[in-house]
Write a structure and sequence with these properties.
- The chain is α+β, with helices and mostly antiparallel strands.
- It has a four-stranded mixed β-sheet with strand order 5-4-7-6, with helices on one face. Strands 2-1-3 form a three-stranded antiparallel β-sheet, with no helix packed on it.
- The longest helix is centred in the N-terminal third of the chain and has 11 residues.
- The chain is globular and about 50 Å long.
- The relative contact order is 0.14.
- This is Isoleucine--tRNA ligase, cytoplasmic.
């Protein structure tokens, strides 16, 4: 749970705030099986339980994509080949463009300066065209292919 709170603090820019994480009205404790929460909507507060008058969970969601790095290892001291990227952050700003999505994906995996392509399949056969609206990608899993450098070709 400590790591989850730490990630939430970083994500929301609340580094000096004590956060509580809830699944519905139930506060998650250190004994919680985080894998059982896969696909659930969690609420993060600065102490008190989410109120009964909270909007439904769908209205709380910020548009996002899940990303999986397929043909390369992360770099720049990053680890892991999966991540989630918010398409609108902070809420109220414009959605990322296709180029900005590629740029943020490169940062997420520590692959700045590398050419990336996004795909809808893990076989990297169906590339996402630049003209697609990024809004169409909300809540989807995208697969990240890294093009080889001239040294690797």
């Amino acid at each position: 749970m400590f790591k989850l709170r730490q990630i939430c603090s970083s994500l929301f820019g609340l580094n000096n705030t004590k956060l509580c994480v809830f699944n519905g009205k139930t506060e998650l404790t250190g004994k919680c099986d985080l894998l059982s929460l896969n696909g659930k909507t969690l609420s993060v507060t600065s102490g008190s339980s989410p109120s009964d008058s909270s909007p439904n969970s769908d209205s709380l969601l910020c548009p996002f994509v899940n990303l999986q790095l397929v043909n390369c290892q992360p770099a720049e001291c990053q680890s892991g080949d999966v991540g989630t990227l918010l398409l609108v952050n902070p809420v109220g700003h414009d959605c990322l463009t296709h180029n900005a999505l590629l740029s943020e994906t490169a940062k997420l995996f520590g692959l700045r300066g590398r050419r990336l392509k996004l795909y809808v399949d893990d076989a990297l056969t169906q590339e996402i065209p630049a003209e697609w609206s990024v809004k169409m990608l909300d809540r989807k899993t995208l697969y990240v292919g890294v093009l080889p450098t001239t040294a690797e070709a």
